[in-house]
Amino acid sequence: MRRAARSLFGRRARLRWVHLILGGALAMPYVLVGSVIIGPATGGTDVFGSFPLQLASFGVGLPLAAVTSLFPLTRPLEAAAVRWLCGVDTDRLAFGPARTRGEKGRTAGWFTLHLGLGGIIAGMSLAVPPFAVVLIVLPVVAGLRGGRLGLPEVLDHAWALALAPVAGAAMLVALAGCAAGGGWLLARWAPALLGPSPEGRLAAAEARAADLAVRNRLARELHDSIGHALSAIGLQASAARRVLDSDPEFVREALAAIEDTTRRTVGELDAVLGVLREGDAPGTAPAPTLAADLDGLLRRTRAGGQRVTATVDTDLEVLPALLSREGYRIVQEGLSNALRHAGDRVAVDVRIAVASGALEITVENPVTGPAAVTAPVSSRPGGGHGLRGIADRVRLLGGTMTAGPAAGSSGRAAGSSGPAGESWRLHVRLPMKGPA
Question: Model pTM?
Fold first, then answer.
């Protein structure tokens, strides 16, 4: 019983009733225009004094409403009203103007349905409650009997007076039921008529996917750039502190490298944040590439005392711009991982070559302890996304990646102090032509 009462008189039912009455109010101008047409056409002088002529005017006005629904703001306004008053989820509605023929047709159908049902329910809401109240109070108000107010004389009988309050209450419940049913019908049809088309859903999904891809790429750029910079700065500062009194020249070089690293990272950070700030122009700092800054990357890494050897068996200038940029980030993250996990006392070997139509990048360093490098990056305290970020880049470029212990490596960096044949190797292979 309580559930039935809530469905007829609950908050949602009342809001949907208001939505229907708004539809009736919107229908009134069209009914007036229809009456101007119906009056001369039928010869009637009092259109609103005749119920059939009122219905005819209503029927003429609805097609006019369908035509005016092509106004661009109709769908956004109707969708907003449906969201607030009918309780339809936002993601099931389209709030932009109808552009295609199908969207315009569905909007016209919705507007006609809203005004049609709204006009009926609004008319009932005006006519039924006064009559129902009269029936309810008829047994106790003798002045309403005897044909007064145009009531039929049959209501003066004793049995009619006894049933009149029941009939009045039933009319009010029936009115609420009609309003609840009409509101439910509109809420049910709103997603189909005011919702996005399959093409619109696909376009929205593609836009969201593109936005997510951009944000993920920017997150990787920030992680790789700032993560490497902080690791390098920490290593350079630590090395400078250890030899502060004994080797002032090395300290000056380390401080210069920290300054250079900081300046470049701030420029890259500004460029990335410029993309994230809506309405701001992107930063002007160019994205680093292998061709433009590999030597600088190695120089800044070595400035902290890290022993890095690099072998480049290809002309970096002829690499595609995308491969050169992503390859730079992969080398940068490989060096960062070595700095974090192997320390500044271990040599790192970087090899870059083109073989069989693919760019191959290898970053390798000897293992100096049982868990110094073999633990994956994501398992270190505080988490981490280094290898995951590299894997995402490689996957998007259609390449392959392996990372882990490499026993018996013949390409270990010179001067390693770990056990013979034990090293940690990151190997990436990127096709020169791929899905990127």
Answer: 0.53
- Integer CA distances (angstroms), 168 to 21, 253, 344, 374, 419, in order: 22, 96, 91, 83, 97
Q: CA distances (Å), 290 to each of 64, 298, 388, 429, in order?
A: 66, 11, 21, 15
368 phi, psi to nearest 5 deg = -105, -5
> CA-to-CA distance for 44 and 143, rounded, in angstroms?
35
Please, which residues bridge with residue 428 across strands? 361, 401
Find the radius of gyration of the CA atoms of the chain: 38
**What is the mean predicted confidence (pLDDT) over 97-103?**
88
Give the residue-averaged pLDDT of 116-135.
93
Cβ-based neighbour number of residue 205 at 10 Å? 10
Does the pLDDT of residue 152 top 60, yes or no?
yes
Residue 110 CA to residue 395 CA, distance in Å, equals 46
Can you spell out the DSSP letters for 76-96? HHHHHHIIIII---GGGS--S
Query: Residue 322's Cα: distance from chain center in Å?
Result: 27
Say yes or no: domain 204-431 is CATH 3.40.190.10: no
CA nearest 120: which of 31, 196, 49? Answer: 31
User: How much is the pLDDT for 278?
Assistant: 54
